[in-house]
Automatic annotation (TrEMBL):
Gene: recQ
Residues of the full protein shown: 1 to 419 of 679
Protein name: DNA helicase RecQ
Keyword Hydrolase among UniProt keywords: yes
Organism: Pelagovum pacificum
One BP term from GO: DNA recombination
A GO CC term assigned to this protein in UniProt: replisome
């Protein structure tokens, strides 16, 4: 199965977090991988999703029983056959895992590293058709680290024994730990390594309160005449009217949405790839598979649905590393629209709550008072020292302004008190 439908249908996410798509692809294809991602970055998905794309069982080695149980519970709720063999199991739980293994139903088998100490476990794993080993918190293999777990040293042997690919994950990025992981888990043979922070320093971030959205977008495009850009809109109708308005201003612009004839859509994709300076005004249907490196700007005429979508959409700009600019408009109507979209959807309540959380995170970013890059990256678990550019760093909001009306009201009140 392909990754995107599983991402949506099983995990309930609309888009990958930064870095996930590449890792999922490599792991699913059976490459040995070492992925370093900040805490909260979404590492679990990078082995859970490939586990569903591959035949056979994925063995997940994880250091903490509580972590394993959480993940198994989450997977089962999503309808995935997963189980854990840990010392914390009841006999019933263990029997259930075994029967799922025997029937060939089990897709993910979580195991504490201690289990690997018994010869029985290795023999069992050899028998059940393991197709992938995933190692969570792989820095536990490092003898010099704080989290050293001696039994992690058995994983390399298991990999050799089973002859299957191994995917290792950690948030610990220092070079020494990385070398130790490569030496101990992969016998020194270099895996494919993924070490990409989430920061895209060449992308300038800006938000503005919507007052006259069409004029605001036209003004933004005016300042970037002749450059390739994307304007994302919340509705299909708006893509058409806004593209028309841009053409009336002399821009080369066309619309794109899921309601169009597939041939027409392909024509727009082709023009965008070939031409310089075309503006595509689109719904989020325009995205997957767009890998034009020199998109110089992305504007949101309407607020995206989540902080993940925002990151992914602005991330289409500046892939070539040269400066790129973004502008996201938002207003009370957007917030109402996005909220009702979630509430009226068919997702189960927990998922709706999570979707509201991701929308709230975006609102937090929209209303941030200092560096947007810091807020954005801290959501993904990453810290940055310097900002490559955002509207708030360019021009810090004058907090004094916000208090002026209050002060005026206050002094007015004082004056009335005096008279
Ligand atoms: P890590 O192991 O890297 O610290 P997790 O795998 O625990 O991170 O994921 C952190 C959070 O991010 C979880 O709540 C998870 O549901 C969420 N998450 C992961 N991938 C995505 C995604 N593509 N879109 C939205 N949320 C995601
Ligand atoms: Mg984790
Ligand atoms: Zn900043």
């Amino acid at each position: 199965m392909r990754a995107e439908p599983l991402l949506r249908e099983v995990f309930g996410f609309d888009s990958f977090r930064p870095g996930q798509a590449e890792i999922v692809e490599a792991v699913a294809q059976g490459e040995n991988t070492l992925a370093i991602m900040p805490t909260g970055g979404g590492k679990s998905l990078c082995f859970q999703l490939p586990a569903l794309m591959r035949d056979g069982v994925t063995v997940v080695i994880s250091p903490l029983i509580a972590l394993m149980r959480d993940q198994v519970r989450g997977l089962k709720e999503a309808g995935v056959e997963a189980g854990a063999l840990t010392s914390g199991n009841t006999e019933e739980e263990t029997a259930e895992v075994w029967s799922a293994i025997e029937d060939g139903r089990l897709r993910l088998l979580y195991m504490a590293p201690e289990r690997l100490a018994s010869g029985g476990a290795q023999a069992m794993l050899r028998r059940i058709g393991v197709s992938l080993i995933a190692v969570d918190e792989a820095h536990c293999v490092s003898q010099w680290g704080h989290d050293f777990r001696p039994d992690y040293l058995r994983i390399g042997e298991l990999r050799r024994d089973l002859g299957v690919p191994l995917a290792a994950f950690t948030a610990t990025a220092d070079a020494e730990t990385r070398e130790e992981i490569v030496a101990k888990l992969f016998d020194g043979e270099r895996p494919r390594e993924f070490l990409r922070g989430f920061d895209r320093p060449n992308i300038h971030l800006a938000f503005a309160v919507k007052d006259q959205p069409r004029r605001q977008i036209l003004a933004f495009a005016e300042g970037r005449r002749g450059q390739s850009g994307i304007v994302y809109c919340g509705t299909r109708a708006k893509t058409e009217t806004l593209a028309q308005a841009l053409r009336e201003q002399g821009h080369s612009a066309c619309h794109y949405h899921g309601g169009m004839d597939p041939d027409d859509r392909r024509a727009v994709e082709g023009r965008f790839a070939r031409e310089d300076g075309l503006i595509v005004v689109a719904t989020i249907a325009f995205g997957m598979g767009i890998d034009k490196p020199d998109i110089r700007w992305v504007a949101h005429a309407d607020l995206p649905k989540s902080i993940e979508s925002y990151y992914q959409e602005i991330g289409r700009a500046g892939r070539d590393g040269a400066a790129a600019e973004t502008l996201t408009l938002f207003g009370p109507d957007d917030i109402r629209f996005r909220r009702s979209q979630i509430d009226e959807g068919l997702a189960p309540p927990e998922r709706k709550a999570a979707d509201h959380g991701r929308l709230n995170a975006l609102l937090g970013l929209a209303e941030a008072l200092e560096c947007r890059r810091k807020s954005l990256l801290s959501y993904f678990g990453e810290e940055v020292e310097t900002c490559g550019g955002c509207d708030l760093c360019d021009k810090p909001p004058e907090l004094f302004d916000a208090t002026t009306p209050v002060r005026m009201a206050l002094s007015a009140a004082l004056r009335t008190g005096e008279s």
